[in-house]
Design goal:
single chain, about 270 residues, alpha/beta, Lyase 2-enoyl-coa Hydratase, Chain  A, domain 2, 2 domains, three-stranded mixed beta sheet, about 15% strand
């Protein structure tokens, strides 16, 4: 018998581990970017340890001021084949769900923009991982599927976020059929922000990373907060929230004043990231 739990109980877990101790996620800091590379061959199946490493890596990146962007990619031919069913047992379901929630809540709540790079299938929890990226670059090798309905369950995170991304009717089609979505269709639906040939993937990622990290870190964070903070609000309430951030938080930053000075003086801004 599985004990009934609530979402509010998903607030604590095992002690956080440091990135250097990660087993399934390669973590490195590189010129303002925290890079998390999924590395559990052959299919990046998400077990509890890997999910906790994703969560801890995102929290670690979020706590460091020098990080402006978080990038998640894969060392395998598959972005992620989803949850490792071998661990998804009655005895371990609570631990798995808690780890799952921690990873995705981390992506949603971290102040840094999150970029997902998908160069292969993203299935089940893997598709949800990509969906929670603020930006998604994919190649034609990518495909996205929520096949949970075929084994008698539904994807709780996809059921929540997909209506925001693609609208309720398309979300219903994706989840109720369990059919895979091609990279081209994902671009049309808004699940993917850029679709590029595999030969141009690295250059495109580097170009986008360089462009984003050339901006002020705190301003990037406030822009993300204003955009995502308005989701679910009326246009009037969203506008009020965005203007509050702009007037009462943004204008207290040194960088916002530096940007205006640089514009007037016709020079490149010298960001202090504060």
């Amino acid at each position: 018998m599985v004990e009934t739990v609530t979402a509010e109980q998903f607030t604590t877990g095992p002690a956080r581990r440091k990135p250097e101790s990660f087993e399934f996620v390669k973590f490195r800091l590189d010129n303002g970017v925290a890079r998390l590379t999924l590395n559990r061959p052959d299919h990046n199946l998400l077990n509890e340890a890997m999910l906790r490493e994703i969560a801890d890596g995102i929290v670690f990146a979020g706590e460091h001021d020098e990080v402006k962007l978080i990038a998640i990619d894969s060392a395998c031919k598959v972005f992620s084949g989803g949850i490792d069913i071998g661990e998804y047992t009655t005895q371990r379901v609570y631990q798995m769900l808690e780890a799952f929630h921690a990873a995705f809540a981390g992506m949603l709540e971290v102040s840094k923009p999150v970029l997902c790079v998908v160069n292969g299938p993203a299935i089940g929890g893997g598709a949800e991982l990509a969906a929670f990226g603020d930006l998604v670059i994919a190649t034609p090798k990518a495909r996205f599927a929520q096949p949970e309905i075929t084994i008698g369950v539904f994807p709780p995170l996809a059921s929540t976020i997909l209506p925001f991304l693609v609208g309720p009717k398309r979300a219903l089609e994706i989840i109720l059929t369990g059919e895979a979505v091609t990279a081209e269709r994902a671009l049309e639906l808004g699940l993917v922000t850029r679709l590029v040939p595999e030969a141009k993937l690295e250059a495109t990622v580097n170009e986008l990373v360089e462009r984003i990290t050339s901006h002020s870190g705190p301003v990037l964070a406030m822009a993300k907060k204003a955009i995502l903070g308005g989701m679910g609000l009326s246009l009037r309430e969203g506008l009020k929230k965005s203007m509050n951030i702009f007037l009462n938080e943004l204008y207290k930053l040194e960088d916002s004043q530096e940007g205006l000075r640089a514009l007037v003086e016709k020079r490149k801004p010298n960001w202090k990231n504060r």
